[in-house]
Amino acid sequence: DARAVIEQVGARLNQMTGYDEIAQLKTKVINSEKAFLTSRERLRACKTAYDDAVGARATSQREINKLLQHQQTWDDKDVTRFAEQFRKEQMDEQAERSTKAECAQAEVEVEHRYNQLVDAIRARYHEEQLWSDKIRGASTYGTLALMLINVLLFISVQTIFEPRKREKLGQHVERLLNERSTAESAELRESMSVIQAALAQQQ
């Protein structure tokens, strides 16, 4: 499968260049961000529960204070109601303490997750800088290598191929000149033979 081959080549290239470490750090940043957002939502829910508990206890305390204001005229219903409100106020106080402790713990968790996120972002940024410097360095070395290859090719052409080319060209020209000289000599001999024959006939 061509796609699988491309993915394998890409993975191998990332491993060779060190980019796979950056990919892992990116994943770590994403996971740290999710954990931070989750902890922040939990803290928000804890604060809401704490505010509700404080409000409920305040309501219970107001009801108790109202009953205490006319304690001298209580009847059986008022006594029962006072006992119920007192128990409710105790439960509300317990809920207030519990949610307050949960809020404190959630705040610590948020701070911890935030520090983890900052550390992950910092590590990713640092690794990306190192990778970028490495790639720039490799690019510079690659450019220098290409320049060196071009210089070597130019020197090779001037010192090896050009002399051979000139030698072959000289041999070709010399051969053409020899062939032309031979042809001209043959034509001259033929012309001389014709002239000599003509002179012989005139005599």
Automatic annotation (TrEMBL):
Its main location: mitochondrion. The chain crosses the membrane at residues 141-161. It is found in: Mitochondrion inner membrane. It is a multi-pass membrane protein. Pfam families: She9_MDM33. Keywords: Coiled coil, Membrane, Mitochondrion, Mitochondrion inner membrane, Transit peptide, Transmembrane, Transmembrane helix. InterPro entries: MDM33_fungi. The keyword Nucleotide-binding does not apply. Required for the maintenance of the structure of the mitochondrial inner membrane. Involved in mitochondrial morphology. Causes growth arrest when highly overexpressed. Belongs to the SHE9 family. Homooligomer. This is Sensitive to high expression protein 9, mitochondrial.
